[in-house]
Design goal:
- The chain contains 15 helices and 11 strands.
- With 373 residues, the chain is α/β, with parallel strands linked by helices.
- The strands form 2 sheets. It has a 9-stranded mixed sheet, with helices on both faces.
- α1 crosses α3 and α6 packs parallel to α7.
Length: 373
């Protein structure tokens, strides 16, 4: 059993979290549950002999096994220090708030560059690796629209639409974030190495994989959950009948994120995926890039709510008053309201619905809410 004789510091917490994620049999969901229940990964190693978590298969908790994980974790810590890589763990305040609300968020994120993972507007753009001139033109037009609204771009640094989106964001001076399916000791595909380096000036690269992790096939769906979890919405531009872009869209739906598609022509192979998302009510159509402004309530000319004292409405419960207060501070999206209030998704939604019935709140596109008082 691991014992840390020193007082807990951020570096110790990061070391223990890395070691926890390296334990055979512990994946992202289990690691997250452990940290949520115990407060830190260090607490797990101090009490692990007496712990049991539902769904956790029998673990090797011998001194030898745990020691090997910490030796590897120490190597990783030295690597991130040498390479100027930032590591943030789920129990810390600087962990991205949007992702933190996702049940399968990774216990630790590694990033390189100058990145704000809690920027006010973050949109993911994904699509096929075999983009057409039509898709590339649409992608550039979408990025131009996103730039008008001071958005950050998130994509996967893959060939095709991902690369087009990253290059357009770079040219426009947007925050440009690439999420990769491997450790930060390499860059896949290597053709994007120069682009990735430029992105670090305003943005950079993010992963939940430690160094020495290869871009193996099974890592890409795991990468896609981070793309969806960091974003307010996902835009799919060209997708075949199956593939990574559709996986990202499905994950985004499971996270209650908005999903949009650029429609394509009948019978074109890279239009099938987008059109099917619409047919199955999993995405809304962008007939024009400016549609995003309406869907996501980015109209700067909307009238501001009039602020009144909460005590004028004595029929409000304490929980309703809490949400009213947050709405007054311009926290008007479901994720922010849920995170800041500490309520579950179902409780937050139920409270907002009750406030709508009382005529105090109006629901808007993009899972946002407007205070009417």
């Amino acid at each position: 059993m691991y014992k840390n004789p020193q007082p807990m510091h951020v570096e110790d917490d990061i070391l223990a979290t890395i070691a926890l994620t390296l334990m055979p049999g512990i994946g992202s969901i289990t690691a997250r549950k452990i940290i949520n229940q115990l407060g830190s990964a260090s607490s797990f190693f101090e009490t692990c002999e007496n712990l049991r978590f539902p769904g956790m298969r029998k673990l090797d908790l011998s001194r030898t096994a745990i020691g090997a994980c910490f030796l590897r974790a120490e190597e990783e810590l030295r690597f991130i220090e040498r390479q100027d890589i930032q590591a943030v763990i789920v129990s810390h305040n600087n962990y991205p708030q949007r992702l933190k609300n996702c049940e399968d968020a990774p216990a630790i994120l590694y990033s390189r560059g100058n990145i704000n993972l809690n920027a006010s507007r973050m949109i993911a753009v994904v699509g096929t690796r075999k983009s057409t001139p039509y898709g590339e033109r649409c992608c550039e037009e979408v990025l131009t629209e996103l730039h008008k609204h001071d958005c950050s771009l998130i994509s996967g640094l893959a060939y095709g639409i991902d690369s087009i989106a990253h290059r357009a964001a770079q040219n426009l001076g947007m925050q440009n974030i690439g999420v990769v399916a491997h450790g930060l000791d390499r860059l896949y595909p290597s053709a994007n190495k120069s682009l990735a380096k430029k992105m670090e000036e305003r943005g950079g690269i993010v992963t939940d994989f430690p160094s020495l992790t290869r871009p193996d096939r099974e890592n890409f769906p795991k990468r896609n959950r981070i793309v969806a979890g960091l974003a307010d919405a996902v835009i799919v531009i060209e997708a075949s009948e199956s593939g990574g872009a559709l996986i990202t869209a499905d994950i985004a739906n499971s996270y209650n994120r908005d999903v949009f598609v650029v429609p394509g022509s009948w019978g074109q192979p890279f239009s099938v995926g987008c059109n099917n998302l619409v047919k199955r009510n999993k995405a809304a159509v962008l007939a024009h890039p400016s549609d995003l402004s309406w869907y996501l309530n980015w109209d700067e000319n909307l009238p501001q709510p009039i602020v009144v004292q909460t005590q004028l409405f004595p029929e409000l419960s304490p929980d309703e008053e809490s949400l009213i207060h947050l709405l007054k501070t311009q926290k008007n999206d479901l994720d922010s309201l849920m995170f800041l209030s500490g309520f579950t998704v179902s409780k937050t939604s139920a409270l907002l619905l009750g406030l709508e019935f009382k005529g105090l709140v109006k629901s808007l596109p993009g899972q946002r809410y407007q205070l009417l008082i």
